[in-house]
Amino acid sequence: MSQSPFKPVPPKVTLPKMEERHLEFWKKHDIFHKTEETRRGGPEFVFYEGPPTANGRPGVHHVLSRSFKDIFLRYRVMRGYHIIRRGGWDTHGLPVEIEVEKKLGFTSKRQIEEFGVAEFNKLCRQSVFEYIQDWEKLTERIAFWVDLENAYVTYHNEYIESEWWILKQFWEQGLIYRGHKVVPYCPRCGTPLADHEVALGYKETEDPSVYVRLPLMDDPDTALLVWTTTPWTLPANVAVAAHPKVTYVKVKRQLPNGEHEYLIVAKPLVEKVFGDEKVEIVAEFPGKALKGKRYQPLYTFVVPDKPAYFVVLADFVTTEDGTGLVHMAPAFGEDDMEMARKYDLPIISTVKPDGTLVSAVRPWAGMFFKDADPYIIEDLQKRGLLFRSGKYTHTYPFCWRCGTPLLYYARPTWYIRTTAKKDRLVALNEKINWVPPHIKHGRFGNWLENNIDWALGRERYWGTPLPVWQCDECGYQHAVGSVAELSEMAGRDLSGLDLHRPYVDEVELTCPKCGGKMHRVPELIDVWFDSGAMQVAQWHYPFENQEIFKKQHPADYICEAVDQTRGWFYSLHAISTLLFDDIAFKNVVCLGLILDENGQKMSKSRGNVVDPWDVINVHGTDALRWYLYTASPPGDNRRFSVNLVGEVVRNFLLTLWNVYSFFTTYAALDGWQPNSETKPEYNELDRWLRSELHSLVKRVTEAYENYDALGATRPIEEFVERLSNWYLRRSRRRFWKSGSDADKHAAYSTLYEALTTLSKLLAPSTPFIAEEIYQNLVRATDPSAAESVHLADWPEYDEAAIDEKLNRDMELVIKLASLGHAARNKAGIKVRQPLQEIAFAVGRAFEQDVVTRYADLLADELNVKRVRLLGGRGEAVSYSLKPLPKQLGQKYKSLFPKIRQAILALDPQEAGERLLAGEPVTVTVDGEEYAIQPDEVEVIVSAHPGLTVASEGAYLAALNTEITPELKQEGIARDFVRWVQNARKEAGLELSDRIHLYYQAPDEIAKAVEAYRNYIMGETLAVEMTAAAPPDDAFVSTAVKNVVIGIKKSTPDEQ
RNA sequence: GGGCCUGUAGCUCAGUCGGUUAGAGCACUGUGCUGAUAACGCAGGGGUCACUGGUUCGAGUCCAGUCAGGCCCA
Fold it and tell me: How far is the CA of A74 from the C1' of B51 (A)?
């Protein structure tokens, strides 16, 4: 017996332990870096890492995106691509500031200013890496290979400098301007709130509901009727919006004093507004007819600097509430501001940042904005402009920190004029491959179609400063595009300057126009600009790395969750479009969200977040990753639970592991090793498995090429199931038999090929078990093989090995075997009891040869002496016909029902026989004759009552259940073998140990044992079998009634 | 209010070009098998394919609408 190169692997395994071993191996041999080095010179595959913020612990959703990033990168490396996998960290922004504010107990910006911006930013800088070790540990443990040592960091000076360069390019194209943005704003805290903060503070509240008359300029008897729940905004009114397509009416209404008035409202709202009151509709017209109609201003505290007080048209006007005419105060509403931009309306701000009314609003100056509501209502009442007032209950946002009602408030800020490039944004999107595809023209495409200018400015502290300096004297503005330029304009070397606030604010420049002093504008830029700039800034382009940059743009592949559509995906796309008129990424996988077991979004506040470590420590990374890839399509939301990951372990990983364990155990026993010189003589089963294997490689490869993780994994699961529960089950004996022959070699070769190929197919998805199998099966026998499976080449499939018919045939054989087992079960006869015969019926002529060709295999599987087709030679069977709708329906369309009737009217016996013989039958419908082909009808066979049958559709297994004395004896012999095998196991013997076998049993059993003496000794590896009481030193089992079995391990020289 | 996605067994999901008995795994019950298996085989219970209408010889599948959930935007 030659020495086996394989390490025998026990069937029991602790997967997390196994994984940790390979983590060590990768680290020790620097495999990750070798994936880059060894592929240098190969085609470039460009990946961008969307930077996370490390100021919180990573969760399962991070494992999700990192797993999906990793799987395609590992695949590409195996395909020979060179990939720079550079990590990155997003480090700026409000969430970081809020964390620090919380720690310091701050509730307002004023406190930060008092504390000192320099010190505050220092704390921010520290806080962003507070959990970096958790991130690094988890990243390593989930086998996401990314270079964190050289990660780009958005707060680095070089990174900021690149961003300045980008902004300067935009500036010079005239794409950056200062405008107004309406933001949710807390007047008490003195700060705008981010969306997620607003979402925290919605409460049900009661507001005034007032209807106000706005008399028309050229027809003072007629008034527009508007509705509002914020009377305090009325002094800032500059326009009224109507929907262009809604129908409006002019109604005549009786006044208490006997006179009448005319009011204009949307037709669908007449009833809601006037209730039971009788009004007369005197005119009807579409909303667009109102465009430009001028009305008398409500208040003139502030004189507008532009034309105002006329009707504008807007799609956002609804006919759900109010009057269909909406009062516009651009300073206090997003929609209103949009209209102001569109119609160039003036922006009147009547509220100060602290929430009190400005002095110009004389009667109520200094009053808190909400407190003015009743006074304004009273004033309107006095002036006869109030139509009605009441109360209205709705949800309104309050500050989550202090409970103050929020103010939607126009603040001056900076914009990028993305709308100027909208057509390019849309056109370039066509070049991007989205997974799933609907995002392209759905969520992302719609977002681009409705593009609005990018609000860039942020009035905060910790972020990339906007590099615009403004002259104190003449107001001239200049964008600085580099540190060198800054130094030059400042007249001193600033190369060591921290480009953050407050230091950068202290740099004074000299105005090139008037020689005055220039100071930086106070704003920072949106953090989405930071992350979107990574395509340029991670390389400090254009100041450095120009060659690398050229090769690394655009990206071939990026992947994040769907919440990045308007976030990172957009910022990458927008920056690339404006800067290069090119796409930033070619392929993007857009992941769904992770929900908890009840379908709820995982969030800290709900307390339903699953810690990835809880899963990894129990089941391991491979199980978690496999679950994430196979559970559902990547774009769908997915429910997550630890139990489902456990299922993966049992169903897939352990099944694979056991095949692997089986192989190594027997290969080690036999001293088998792969041998390229002896060509294996494959049997039918081997050919089938190889056919399945090679079509698997083909399918999986295609899926990877299409960024289809589900398609790259689920088929492997099916293959492993078949490998374990059909190929191996049917092949076991070929490995057991002693000695070595061609058939055994073929079996080993086939199984070896399957396992080594699987290790490569699994390397991208389950990198640990893939490495385990590869190291033991490939590296151990082939010193020239790549050091790690992750450095190996992707397997090629052999088209010639794929035999679709063979695959289909075997599928049928498996089904027939299943029916055979069902029949045995029905008869209550265990598989160990041999039976004389089983007969099968199949519904279609072309399937009949499968039964004969695989008769031996079926006989063995079902433990019967003979397998045959049912229905031959006048056997008492009856047929019935089942017309197949798919074939016949497609052929005969609406004639199908009649054809079907005609077929059912045929004599089933005669027609069935002909069809099963492969001949057509003729039916007549409406005087026309039609030839029905054998593959258009299924023939259902029923067996005569004497047989035990199991059937499914047209397939049927009929069992002859008669047990002759000979069969009985053989059954007993097989039982006996099993008893001995159990005893061997109990005695703790090795698989290959030879034994002395002793037994005592009643007559009937003893007779059977003696009749099958050679068979029993061969099966149980007995060198001697004695019908006598076992000696004292033997292991004795009395597990079976009336039977004593004794075994004693034999000494080596007896073998 | 708008856009996008999802809705199939108790749970997680398949379901091809529309084809007449809607499947798998898990869980449950019974039973069998086992010297690779923490497994596996066989059988059983469990379905208004969210709902309504339409197209069609035929709809889980296509179309329209409704409802519910999710995400994003307002």
Answer: 46
